[in-house]
Amino acid sequence: MAGLDIGQIFLYFRSNLFWKRLMPLDPALNSLGFAKPPSETRVVVAMSGGVDSSVVAAMLAEEGYDVVGVTLQLYDHGAALAKKGACCAGRDIHDARRVAEEMGFPHYVLDYENTFKEAVIDEFADSYLAGATPVPCIRCNERVKFKDLLETAKDLDADCMATGHYIQRMMGSDGAELHCAADPTKDQSYFLFSTTQEQLDFLRFPLGHHPSKDETRKLAAKYGLSVADKPDSQDICFVPNGNYAAVIEKLRPGAAEPGEIVDIDGNALGTHKGVIHYTIGQRRGLGIGGLSDPLYVVKLDVDAKQVVVGPKELLATRRVPLREINWIGDGGFLSGGEREIAVKVRSTRPPTDAVLRPISDTEAEVELLVAEEGVSPGQACVFYDPKSSRILGGGWIWRGH
């Protein structure tokens, strides 16, 4: 518990006690919630080759479950062998296969390159070119892992699919619910808000209630896994070293067209080598030094090829328009009307108080009680129950303020 503040410790104990209260107590149910022995329960484990999913597979295999490991080849890993710190590269496929051999369960590699390119990479490139700040990891979970891979798991006659995500699945009065991880520093709820109720019924997240990543690594060492000391992934798997612009230029040749850096009144302050090199809220690297007050990127005008800069206060916004709403809270999204919730508009920020106003089944507006800076189209806005650790869904930010 070292390093956690009082609020985080409270969340940890509350979510764990809540988890214990809501999980089935029927001794006839196994640890995954099925009324049959583990040996008769088939579980497909989505294995990235990292320590988290490897521990999930090893833990379930040790408990006697019929484990089948599946790793997705999402892009040409031959080009990625020299890259460290990202998932799903060639080395990671090898590591996943090795864990399966060590623990004695079957392992398959599925070629999802075309699916991944069409469902994730192409949209990432187009969104970035349109001046948005996309979050491809959410789309990957939504369109590949929890859609195509989940269907593959069902085709393999699995009872459920388990992943190494740090998030909790709890049983509530109306069925399965999604809750934040016990360890708030590892919580991945922002990246899983688009999980549907049907998917949640089939998914399991065995690591969600662990108090820390250290516990996961201790389990990896206990099982003697070769990945026990493997570093965590840091980058988006197809974006080497976080260089988004380089990837966009490779995917969309000629995308980096030069233009002007202008102030909010349209006055030219300098030039740039392409809008794709900038993000909303950026301050450093603008190349317009010598001004008395610091300026920030407040807008990207793709059509005019302009980077618009202004004072920091222009970054603050309270009204956030959303579309592609996914609601996994109680009742209907529209029938619930306006409601007080907590939201995250960036993965690294804590939930903040807000008011949710549904417009249609798929559209809404969120009003933040305290203005946030740097809210950008292409990011997600995730909904939380302000009184518990439950995730209620979320949507995609689609217009600037």
TrEMBL record:
Active site location: C140, C237
Function of the molecule: Catalyzes the 2-thiolation of uridine at the wobble position (U34) of tRNA, leading to the formation of s(2)U34.
Localization, UniProt: Cytoplasm
GO molecular function per UniProt: ATP binding; methyltransferase activity; tRNA binding; tRNA-uridine 2-sulfurtransferase activity
Chain segments carrying region Interaction with tRNA: 186-188
PANTHER family: MITOCHONDRIAL TRNA-SPECIFIC 2-THIOURIDYLASE 1, TRNA 5-METHYLAMINOMETHYL-2-THIOURIDYLATE -METHYLTRANSFERASE
Catalytic reaction equation(s): S-sulfanyl-L-cysteinyl-[protein] + uridine(34) in tRNA + AH2 + ATP = 2-thiouridine(34) in tRNA + L-cysteinyl-[protein] + A + AMP + diphosphate + H(+)
An example Gene Ontology biological process: tRNA wobble position uridine thiolation
Organism, scientific name: Cognatiyoonia sediminum
Domain of life: Bacteria
Site (Interaction with tRNA): H165, Q379
Name assigned to this protein: tRNA-specific 2-thiouridylase MnmA
UniProt-listed InterPro entries: MnmA-like, MnmA-like_C, MnmA-like_central, MnmA-like_central_sf, Rossmann-like_a/b/a_fold
Keywords linked to the UniProt accession: ATP-binding, Cytoplasm, Disulfide bond, Methyltransferase, Nucleotide-binding, RNA-binding, Transferase, tRNA processing, tRNA-binding
Its EC number(s): 2.8.1.13
Gene this chain is encoded by: mnmA
Domain tRNA-specific 2-thiouridylase MnmA-like central as annotated: residue spans: 256-310
Disulfide bonds: C140-C237
Annotated Gene Ontology cellular component terms: cytoplasm
